[in-house]
Specification:
single chain, 2 helices, about 45% strand, globular
Length: about 240
């Protein structure tokens, strides 16, 4: 797909080997001007194409896009990787208007792997249920011979934070990097039901199990309860000498 360079763009040497693949889910971050609230919005989309110097994503729609989207727009693209969430800065080179409108993006910075968690986390126990999310672009086409499709995965909680959860799951399930998933569990007598994205998948001591980390999609309905749980658990550990 041809790309027209954005005016004034200082293009960095790209690292396509680290980029997500075709149809992989990514998140695009756009900073809105003050006239539209001045906030940074994070919108899910998917990869449509890529070359050595261009990443093409399906054009995300959001409030104010008609006033903001133009060549030269600075955006951040985030995606899940083996070592954590990856992020790279881009400039919008061209809006491609085919059957599926797309953004042709030119890299303006290097790929950065964000391994540090945004929120404090504490150990957690208990069981959880992890189910697929409708509309996930990484979800395989359902087999007509399988009535249930991708099954609910039984999991054991490992740790919790305000922004995510780690859970131990059986090896060989549909859970893999980039997948959207809904995790449901009980937190101090009240249910938590939250959609997230698998951002890490790690081997565990048990060869039959994996540890997956889900980053919760915002808004997090149970954020206040999760924050309170983390703070209370940290206080208990300090009082017990666990520092």
């Amino acid at each position: 797909m041809a790309r027209r360079a954005a005016s004034g763009a200082q293009l960095a040497r790209s690292a396509p080997g680290h980029w997500p693949g075709l149809n992989d889910r990514v998140w695009v971050e756009v900073h809105l001007p003050d006239s539209l609230g001045g906030e940074t919005i994070r919108i899910p989309t998917r990869v449509e194409d890529s070359t050595e110097s261009s990443l093409v994503v399906a054009a995300p729609s959001f409030r104010g896009d008609l006033h903001v989207v133009a060549p030269g727009l600075a955006v951040s693209v985030c995606w899940a990787g083996q070592r954590g969430q990856s992020r790279q800065e881009f400039l919008l080179a061209e809006v491609v208007r085919h059957r599926v409108p797309a953004w042709d993006l030119a890299p303006s910075g290097d790929v950065v792997v964000e391994q540090r968690r945004r929120f404090a986390r504490v150990p957690a126990t208990g069981t959880a249920r992890i189910s697929p999310v409708a509309g996930d672009p990484l979800r395989a086409e359902p087999d007509p011979a399988e009535e249930d499709g991708e099954p609910v995965v039984g999991a054991h909680l490992v740790d919790l934070s305000e922004g995510g959860a780690a859970a131990s799951v059986p090896a060989g399930t549909w859970l893999r990097l980039g997948r959207l998933a809904r995790i449901s569990f009980d937190l101090e007598g009240d249910p938590v039901d939250q959609v997230g994205q698998v951002v890490r998948s790690l081997d565990s001591l048990d060869p039959d199990r994996l540890e997956v980390v889900l980053a919760f999609a915002e808004p997090v309905a149970a954020a206040d309860r999760l924050r309170r749980y983390v703070m209370q658990t940290q206080i208990k550990h300090r009082r017990g000498g666990d520092r």
